[in-house]
Write a structure and sequence with these properties.
two-stranded antiparallel ribbon; 15 helices; Farnesyl Diphosphate Synthase; 321 residues; mainly alpha; 1% strand
Length: 321
């Protein structure tokens, strides 16, 4: 988050989140501590705990509770990435080796399980049954999204199915960070709903931009092969937008995706998508989600936290990595 200068005023609080996450290896197998340090040192924007800190700070939540919440949400996110990378066979994330690049599948799965357990322990430490239930429901939602993606690889998705999948896999955690922070604050249900809406809209925009960058970025920048999702048979919004622009290509593209395609054929499709209006179409949808996130903030108290949440939303849609 070093480039996000507008967040400097909560930098020490984000550092507390980091320290609380690292503390979760104390008293357990030393290799788990090594794995946790590797994962936490491999980059990451810490956007989810930042949302929790800003939202809760704006609404009057206790800092220690918000730090615990931020650490819980980020550990849950990290655990899902560990399992994701193993499922996808990914050897790089953010330009760094994944855990499964050097560890066995069994050790990688167990490390992910360990992170899930520590995230849940932090959630339980908040002593708020509603938040613990929310945490559990969010984890189930994420797993549902993963299963959907796994069983629907090499199939063309429509827009509705795509939106459902990215809500489950990505936006649900943004919702947890934002709404749980409101639940820890002395506010009414209307305010909690605004916080939830901000998290939802921002999370959807974040994933759409990720999917755009998967096509427009370069491997050295995005830390993974260009169009890696498509190469794994996962259809994202740029592909859906391209099919809307070129419906006559639907049959050949579906056949290519469903067969796995030869590398040269996939490269040709990637280049066609990259040079088409589909990229701008998809990005404009992300901008629409961000606009709705900003509308949700209109009903919340003004101050530096709210201004930072506005700038964070603007960053999400303008980022290049």
């Amino acid at each position: 988050m070093n480039d996000l200068v507008f967040l400097e005023f909560i930098g020490s609080h984000v550092q507390q989140v980091e320290e609380r996450m690292r503390d979760q290896s104390d008293g357990y197998n030393s290799d788990l501590g090594i794995a946790l340090n590797h994962l936490l040192s491999s980059g990451g924007k810490r956007i989810r705990p930042t949302i929790a800190l800003l939202m809760g700070g704006m609404l009057g939540g206790e800092l220690d509770d918000l730090v615990t919440l931020g650490a819980s949400v980020e550990l849950l996110h990290t655990a899902t990435l560990v399992h994701d990378d193993l499922i996808d066979g990914s050897l790089l994330r953010r330009g760094n080796p994944t855990l499964n690049a050097s560890w066995s599948p069994a050790a990688t799965v167990l490390t992910g399980d360990y992170l899930f357990s520590r995230a849940a322990a932090l959630g339980a430490a908040l002593e708020n049954p509603a938040i613990l239930s929310f945490f559990s429901d969010t984890l189930a939602t994420i797993v549902s999204g993963e299963i959907t993606q796994l069983f629907n690889r090499q199939h063309i998705s429509d827009r509705e199915a795509y939106y459902k999948r990215i809500y489950e896999k990505t936006a649900s955690l943004f919702v947890l960070a934002a709404k749980a922070a409101a639940m820890l604050s002395p506010v009414d249900e209307t305010v909690k709903e605004c916080a939830k809406n901000y998290g939802y809209e921002l999370g959807m925009a974040f994933q759409i931009v990720d999917d755009v960058l998967d096509f427009t970025g370069e491997q050295i920048t995005i830390g993974k092969p260009v169009a890696s999702d498509l190469r794994q048979g996962i259809v994202t919004l740029p592909v859906i937008s391209y099919l809307e622009l070129h419906p006559d290509d639907g049959g050949s593209i579906a056949a290519l995706v469903e067969s796995g395609g030869r590398e040269g054929e996939l490269d040709d499709l990637v280049n066609r998508i990259r040079s088409s209006e589909a990229i701008d179409m998809a990005h404009k949808e992300a901008e629409q989600f961000v606009a709705r996130a900003l509308e949700a903030l209109d009903k919340l108290p003004d101050g530096r936290e709210r201004q930072a949440l506005i700038k964070l939303a603007e960053f999400v849609v303008s980022r290049r990595v």
